[in-house]
Amino acid sequence: MSTSLRRAPAVLSAIALLIVSGCAGTPDRDATGVPAPSSPSSTAPTAPPDPAARAAQLVATLADEDLVGQVLMPYAYGNSATKVSGGSAAGNRKLAGVQTPAEMIAKYRLGGLILVGFSADDPTGANQPTTNVDNPKQVGDLTAGLQAAAGKLPAGAVPALIGIDQEFGVVTRISEGVTNLPSAMALGAGGDPALTETAWRSAGTELAALGVNVDFAPSADVLGANSKVIGSRSYGSDPKAASNQVGAAVRGLQGAGVAATLKHFPGHGQTAADSHKGLPVVKQNRKQLDSFALPPFAAGIDAGAWLVMAGHLDVRAVDPGIPATFSRKLLTDVLRTELGFTGVLVTDAMDMAAVAEQPPGQTAVRALNAGNDLVLMPPNVAEAYNGVLAALRNGSLPRARLVEAVTRVLTLKFRLADRPRPEMSTLNSTGHQEAARRAAAAAITMLRGGCGAAPVTGPVTVTAANDRGTSRDRLIKALRAVGVKVVPSGGKVVHLVGYNDGTSDLRADAAVTVAMDTPYVLGRARSPVLLATYSSTAVSITALADVLAGRAKPTGRSPVQVTGLPRSSCPAS
């Protein structure tokens, strides 16, 4: 590995002391398994200020059952913690043998839950069996209910981890009533880390207001292949530029009190295969990984990222045939020792096809033994919980390894515990909308055409591939708002293409073709004007309308190379 990526690993002294002193022993408990209260004459120890020391102190009070629960982060069915529909109750019974999310937390003493959901064009939709997200008030009530349930646990001195995949772009769980940023690739096209940091701070503040304290973002994957599963979720194909963007996103999110997660270690952008469907093979040699895939992870760690997500990837140069999720060579030797990461290591979803063939209890133990601290989305909560508990008791999962994992999880929780929750009025605030607008405007890229005037004049007809009616309607409205005449037919055609569209989705007669996801398809378009927004969010469509009307210049540069086209046809300012 290159010298610039090597760091001396920092070891949490509290964890070391904890393991050496054997503080994972079980304290006196009443018949219910809850720790017995201290006698009135005893003096309670003063809580140390350092999160790691506080975590070590709390771990010393936890029973085996609590330790196991703290390293599990499943999903649940239902849009409320305590009141769910019959269908959601049935889903929870199949998943965990309980009726509600609150009961799941109580029974398995969980470290947290992930909110799940799905939307059009979502490449992660294969393992999103339900949705917990309807609107901001519902999400806020749900997270409050989850925290109330977690507060009754022996580990309830700290908040539960409430996570979500809010990447923006094609992977966006909450879209209504909140500020929507453009995609990561759009931010990469803008090329301004300061804009990225401001935008992510706005988004993080809104997540915190909703009660979400962990975002499984940003993607630190450098795009080295035309990957449909990563695609516009990546900041681009240049490791240095992507590193700058990843660091900015981390600082923005965590500056707002939401833990950022670097994913998918050691880099899912090196393969076009989809780990939701099988185990992708990463064929790059170690030197290529060090120079191309790992820099954004190193940059995110330098920026202070509190979590890293392990990818379900067969990295042939390091540990051939073993998914990175289960590879000590990758997770402990490379990530911990070489890159110096000391935070929480979380698996990618364990219900994905790449790792879901073995029993949930077995895979959870394998993941923990490899160095993961949190097991995300096990396909059966009861089996995962019982498997880890049995492994702890028979010694196949060393107690010291589990204590280390739980201490890291609780350290993160103590870091989050004292962060004030913003008011709901911060959602969609003017300042946040402006941050998103500026980021979207900076992204608009012209890959073919002149930059001195409006790209199209006269009446315009807007068309879109694959029934992308929402985007088409948004653009029509935005164009009319800036004075462009839009007609149902007969005008100069502005054609929109998006996620997963190909050559057959282009229009040969289009005066302008616009890519609202990765721009690769533009290399096969015949239009005299080619533009890219990299995103179909409302702010991106509005920014596109400003460029089409000649009110703004397309200042972005494509963060990936499109065959036969420049990064921008506009001269650099």
From TrEMBL:
Membrane-crossing residue ranges in chain numbering: none
EC identifiers of the protein: 3.2.1.52
Chain intervals for the UniProt region annotation (Disordered): 29-53, 554-573
Positions with biased composition (Low complexity): 35-45
Domain of life, source organism: Bacteria
SUPFAM superfamilies from the UniProt entry: (Trans)glycosidases
Keyword list, A-Z: Glycosidase, Hydrolase, Signal
Entries under Pfam families matching the protein: Glyco_hydro_3
Start and end residues of each Glycoside hydrolase family 3 N-terminal domain: 99-412
Listed InterPro entries: GH, Glyco_hydro_3_AS, Glyco_hydro_3_C_sf, Glyco_hydro_3_N, Glyco_hydro_3_N_sf, NagZ_Beta-hexosaminidase
Reactions it catalyzes: Hydrolysis of terminal non-reducing N-acetyl-D-hexosamine residues in N-acetyl-beta-D-hexosaminides
Gene3D superfamilies for the chain: Glycoside hydrolase family 3 C-terminal domain, Glycoside hydrolase, family 3, N-terminal domain
The UniProt record lists the keyword Hydrolase: yes
Assigned protein family: Belongs to the glycosyl hydrolase 3 family.
PANTHER family: BETA-HEXOSAMINIDASE, BETA-HEXOSAMINIDASE-RELATED
Name of the protein in question: beta-N-acetylhexosaminidase
